[in-house]
Amino acid sequence: MAQKRVLIAGAGFGGIAAALTLEKNKTRELKIVLVSAKPHFEYRPALYRVVTGKSPLEVCIPIREILEGREVEFIVDTLQDINLAQKTARGAWGANYAFDYLILALGSETAYFNISGLEEFSFGFKSITEALRLKRHLHKLFEDCSKEKNPDEKVCLLHFVVVGGGASGVELAGELSKYSRKLAREHGVGEELITIDLIEAAPRILPALAPKISEKAARHLRQLGVNIFTGRPMEAQKLEEIKVRGLSMKTETVIWTAGIKPNSLYQKIFGLAFDSKGRILVDEYLQAKNFKNIFALGDGASTPYSGMAQTAIHDGQSVAKNILRDLEGLPLIRCRPQKPYNFIPIGSGWALASLGRITLYGRVGWFFRRFADFRYFLSILPFKKAILAFRSGKTLCESCEICLPES
Question: Which of 118, 121, 176, 372 has its C-alpha lying 20 to 30 A from 134's C-alpha?
């Protein structure tokens, strides 16, 4: 039997899960090729910790470490075009990658919804690069504030606006509360100058969860000093001003966590069909509509619970198992959607863990969240490297000399 080639486009949660599952169970007749625009995997659930002074090593994991000792060919390249009819993909430098099976796992990118000034002036929150840029910006604001004489300008400098009351926005707003006060002490700035606003267009934060959970999260955020504005869609942003429904705010820091869209490459692939959100229409096996052996998963697939890391992992494992079954001449098995659990930290040592019918709060919820982090690292890395990645989440890594810990 001639060797078959599986091309995995993207090395996020879904792409990594597919590659590891295929490699663990593959035969000699299968060649696995993983292509990613970045040489590292980004553990995005921990991005908020990078912004607030912790080591990026927990978030940024070299893919070659994940694949060490495994029969997976890893290529760093940015795919520019995919021809489904010819079963080839073209990279940024003209390289062509042939495939018999294709797994589209390119994830999502930030959506700005054509809001005036938003892309130009706001800070994104979807990558390690954006997180580090935001951290440097925060330190500069406190440095500038320590030198500023105008009281109104001081207030503007330390006014932080997080737009988006989903999990990412809630996590970041909660952690910013403690971290901003730490920076104020380090730079000799009054903590009373700090304002943190969380803006959500829906009637409540965490709208995907039960109202009772949303209310408890909101209560804890307010205890941390975070102001919450709901039912306030964003309308426009200028250099030092943001406009939401019924409000105008002076600020130099708007952090946009409120919108994602599937990777823009998908729209360039001839023959794919999409839903109203731009996600690829798939069948019960996660095969793209009207195509055999072309699979889509994670944020870019039109499935229940799309956009969650746990969904992408489940999808990646299911697709890999079906490819292996197809190679053996066995019928494919339906990919059954699994409702993901939610682990949302809100400030240091406090989290909510929504586990189906049970929701845990506080220190217990925090333990479950950190256990989920560690369990994932163990699933992709050798034990010692998993320990190192996990411990990095507690290691300080600051951006200015004033805030560096004393040696």
Answer: 372
CA distance 369 to 167: 13
The answer to whether 224 and 174 have CB atoms below 8 angstroms apart is yes
Place of tokens 């070659």: 64
pTM over 0.90: yes
- For the cut 80, the answer to whether the pLDDT of residue 404 exceeds it is no
Q: How far apart are CA 81 and CA 405, in angstroms?
A: 47
Q: Give how far Cα 152 sits from Cα of 81, 145, 195, 227, 362, Å.
A: 51, 11, 13, 19, 36
Q: What is the pLDDT of residues 118-167, one digit of tens each?
A: 999 999 999 999 999 999 999 999 999 999 999 999 999 999 999 999 99
> Which residues lie closer than 8 Å to 68 by C-beta, 6 or more apart?
382
What is the fold, at CATH topology level, of the domain defined by 4-37+77-109+261-340?
Answer: FAD/NAD(P)-binding domain (3.50.50)
CATH architecture, range 118-258+343-398: 3-Layer(bba) Sandwich (3.50)
